[in-house]
Amino acid sequence: MVYHKSRTDEFDVLGSSNTAYSAKNFAKRSTIMKSLVEGSLVIEVRMKSTDKSIPQFIPTNPLRKNVLELFMDEESADAVFEVGGEQQTKGKRKKTTPATKLYAHRLILKNNASALYEMCKSDGEEGITTVSITDVKPEIFRHMIYYAYGGKLSKEDLKKNAKDIINACDKYGVVHLKLEAEAKYVETTKITMDNMMDNLLYADSKNLALLKEAVMDYIVANKRDIMGKVSFDNVPGGLITDVLAAMSRGEVGDDGDNKDYNTMRVGTLRKMLDEKGLEVDGSRESMIALLKEKNA
Question: Second label for 42, Cα 20 to 30 Å away, from 50, 147, 250, 259?
């Protein structure tokens, strides 16, 4: 609403609150011409807030902090993972190194590390469940549990232990940490002619769609140098689809306005699945099939 006083008034009132004014005759032209700075009129505008309320501090939700405080809390834990304890041969005698005890809570593992939860389910019995883990290094297993409690691993830890973290998370179902470690591995690994096949086979064995995509991009970009020098005899036949997808991306551009699932980047497919609350760990084919199923 704009309210105007009579035309003879010096000022008009703007707005229903009567707190803003406009002048009909701001200044004479001759006055303005004398005020020009190198041919330009400089106007200084000063504004003052009329809001008299005092901003209040609103604390953040303490849930994540409270859950993290339970990490490795021996007193309240109802599950213990005994990790390590490998036998070492010294001369003719065998020496067993003590296992590292890592404490956890089944309720927290249930939705954040489902495979670990299944291993330590008590079937209704009270008390602490002890589980032996011999195929993962204690520090890697600790990283995995810490992540399940809402912790965030440092970039250095991810870079240093990327493959170990991927392997452990792939086996024990800590999906999001696996994908985070995969992204760091792709970011810090330069694909070359020498490591191309090893990375491709590793990606296929662990369902690492992002790493596989990086290798495919390298193959397409260097196809003339690779042709006749690298054997693809041991490559699974299903990988041809990924090669064609990489070639198609080069023709239409990286995603952009592209609506064809088959040529979308792995990151885009994962984002779309995550926004729909769907499983993000899988091959390109499985991700596309899931998206098509939900959008049918």
Answer: 50
| 103 DSSP assignment | E
Collect all residues with Cβ–Cβ distance below 8 Å to 229 and sequence separation of at least 6. Answer: 193
75-124 pLDDT per residue, tens: 999 999 999 876 556 665 566 678 999 999 999 999 889 899 999 876 55
Instruction: In whole angstroms, give the CA distance from residue 12 to residue 178.
Output: 65
Closest to 136 measured CA to CA, from 83, 176, 86, 205: 83
Beta carbons of 80 and 106 less than 8 angstroms apart = no
Q: What is the DSSP string of 227-289?
A: TTTS--TTS-GGGHHHHHHHHHHHHH-SSTT---GGGS-HHHHHHHHHHTT----S-HHHHHH
CA quadruple 251, 252, 256, 259: dihedral sign: negative
The predicted pLDDT at position 1 comes to 37
Q: How many other CB atoms are there within 10 angstroms of residue 271's CB atom?
A: 13
143 contacts 157 by C-beta, under 8 angstroms: yes
Q: Which residue(s) pair with 130 in the sheet?
A: 80
Reported as a single tens digit per residue, the pLDDT across 147-190 is: 999 999 999 999 999 999 999 999 998 999 999 999 999 999 99
Residues 19, 11: contact at Cβ < 8 Å? no
What DSSP assignment string belongs to 234-248?
A: TS-GGGHHHHHHHHH
Distance CA 271, CA 275 (A): 6
**For helices 175-188 and 209-221, what crossing angle results, to 10°?**
20
Whole-Å CA distances, 6 to 13, 19, 20, 25, 282: 10, 17, 16, 14, 72
What is the percent of the chain where pLDDT is above 70?
78
Positive or negative torsion for Cα 290, 215, 202, 230: positive
